[in-house]
């Protein structure tokens, strides 16, 4: 029913910027949260940012002041603007949707996931 497709990843130097996009289809929920997670091989998937249906954002401490989550409801698209990128931001980034909020930074609270887009930040 719900499909999420990420794009916008790539390779950048430290201090650079990228904007990730997540195109959503099949949305039929009145209330839901969407989020960005990231994961590196051998480590736990971690929450990066969450945004509610009303547009209220929450960020992980590691990205506060550098990343901005937003959405365009008319386009059914979620965004993650990433500035001042660091090598430790290197990861596969995933878009996710929780159909039954409240939802936080826990991956097991999300019902739908995109395929991921790779972000690589070189020093």
What would a concise description of this structure say?
The chain has 123 residues and is mostly beta strands. The protein has strands at 3-7, 10-13, 18-25, 33-39, 46-51, 57-59, 67-72, 77-82, 91-98, 112-113, 117-122.
How many beta-strand elements? 11
Question: What sort of overall outline do the alpha carbons produce when their principal axes are compared?
Answer: globular
Assess the beta-strand content as a share of residues.
Answer: over 45%
**pLDDT under 50 segments (min length 5)?**
none
User: How much helical structure, as a percent, in the residues?
Assistant: under 10%
The mean pLDDT is 95
Q: What series of H and E elements makes up the topology?
A: EEEEEEEEEEE
């Amino acid at each position: 029913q719900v499909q999420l497709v990420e794009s916008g990843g790539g390779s950048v130097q430290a201090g650079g910027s990228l904007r990730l996009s997540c195109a959503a289809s099949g949305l039929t929920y009145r209330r839901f949260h969407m989020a960005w997670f990231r994961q590196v091989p051998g480590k736990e998937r971690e929450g990066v940012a969450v945004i509610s249906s009303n547009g209220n954002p929450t960020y992980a401490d590691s990205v506060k002041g550098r990343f901005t989550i937003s959405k365009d409801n008319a386009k059914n698209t979620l965004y993650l603007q990433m500035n001042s990128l660091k090598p430790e931001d290197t990861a596969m980034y995933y878009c996710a949707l929780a159909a039954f909020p409240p939802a936080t930074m826990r991956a097991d609270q999300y019902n739908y996931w995109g395929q991921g887009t790779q972000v690589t930040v070189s020093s």
